[in-house]
Design a protein that fits this description.
single chain, 381 residues, alpha+beta, Butyryl-Coa Dehydrogenase, subunit A, domain 1, Butyryl-CoA Dehydrogenase, subunit A, domain 2, 3 domains, 4-stranded mixed beta sheet, 12 helices, 10 strands, 16% strand
């Protein structure tokens, strides 16, 4: 396997890293992340102009990338700057549209790529605890369309979104993969109530209530009752993105910690000269490289036609990132000492983001169990 990025991907990474460093500095980022809006429309438009959103989609859908490694390159750069703009929603919703949308529905991808539409996945529900098939929101036929009723929790950028991709059950019992349907719901539809709130690691989420929301027949994405496969694929892209974002954040935490060890002096010498700290830093470097290997494996698996192979690689990566993300956070803070916990030091914000990434789209315990289950299913075939 060739681990070198193509020239186009290296150019994209360089462009994004430079833009984030120059336009999305620490103070700017915090003002956006902990503000009342949780994103900056002007910067979001600039990201779109740079092609950062277009790189997430293949040429057939109006983008200019779309492979697993393209997504990894973009989100690693975003992770380095702790960017809170709504990239994840654009990726997940856009990929669902690309996988199951009608030609008319796929036309909406263009507005995602140019940044004019903010999209969000409204799937998680209170009590679902990462179980993808645990959907209790209901959709029933109403006239020529559908009526949706239910509640969605922790919808990332849900209060800024204009387009919601909502999972709802049209048949079957709660927990069954069969009977889940996906709907494209304008966020300003009558009956949609949103309560936004800030996240502990920056950015915004929303609780969304659907009270007899009426949508047309053209709101159904894909085949009625067969939305689970599309949902799984779209969220798989999201898992890859989060893993790559975490890798970018780890790289910065590692670099900052190494610089601190080389400059902070104790007893007249840099503390990095102490053997105990050298050993801890060496272990940290190895763990971060293991994370990179997991992200590379997951990015390569996204092109696989084998669903089990793809999902195993994604769960392996998410488990690895969850474990090592917590380790990098803890070790970096401990090697900094008390200053590592302060608001003014960027490290504390990287640590919070790394810890919270573990809780998006399934934590390490969930994905370890999922990896085991997928491996057993493969062995039984």
């Amino acid at each position: 396997m060739n681990f070198e990025h193509t020239e186009d991907r290296r150019m994209l990474a360089d462009t994004l890293n430079r833009f984030v460093a120059e336009q999305y500095g620490f103070e700017t980022r915090n003002a956006i992340a902990y503000g009342d809006v949780g994103m900056q429309p002007a910067l979001w438009a600039q990201f779109a102009e740079l092609g950062a959103i277009g790189a997430l989609f293949p040429e057939a859908e109006g983008g200019f990338g779309g492979a697993g490694f393209d997504v990894a390159v973009v989100f690693e750069a975003l992770g380095r700057g702790l960017v809170v703009e709504p990239f994840l929603g654009a990726l997940v919703v856009g990929r669902a549209l690309a996988a199951a949308g009608t030609p008319a529905q796929k036309e909406q991808i263009a507005s995602l790529i140019d940044g004019s539409t903010v999209a969000a996945l409204a799937h998680d529900e209170p009590g679902s605890h990462y179980e993808m098939a645990r959907v209790s929101t209901r959709a029933v036929r109403s006239g020529e369309g559908w009526a949706l009723n239910g509640a969605k929790a922790v919808v990332v950028q849900g209060d800024n979104a204009q387009l919601l991709l909502v999972s709802a059950r049209t048949a079957g019992d709660v927990g069954s993969e069969d009977g889940i349907s996906l709907f494209l719901v304008p966020a300003d539809s009558a009956g949609v109530a949103r309560r936004g709130m800030g996240r502990i690691d920056g950015g915004r989420v929303a609780e969304i209530t659907l009270d007899n929301v009426q949508v047309g027949a053209d709101a159904l994405l894909g085949t009625e009752g067969q939305g689970f496969a599309t949902l799984e694929l779209a969220m798989g892209w999201g898992v890859l993105a989060l893993c790559a974002e975490a890798l970018g954040a780890m790289e910065v935490a590692k670099k900052d910690t190494l610089e601190y060890l080389q400059t902070r002096k104790q007893f007249g010498v840099p503390i990095g000269s102490f053997q105990a700290l050298q050993h801890r830093m060496a272990d940290l470097l190895l763990e971060v490289e293991q994370s990179r290997s997991a992200v590379i494996n997951a990015a390569a698996a996204m092109d696989s036609a084998d669903r089990v192979e793809r999902e195993r690689a994604l769960s392996a990566a998410k488990f690895t990132i969850g474990r090592i993300g917590a380790l990098v956070s803890e070790e970096s803070i401990q090697m900094h000492g008390g200053i590592g916990m302060t608001w003014e030091l960027p490290l504390s914000h990287y640590a919070k983001r790394l810890v919270m990434i573990d809780h998006q789209f399934g934590d390490e315990d969930h994905h370890l169990a999922r990896f085991i289950a997928l491996s057993q299913a493969t062995a039984e075939v």
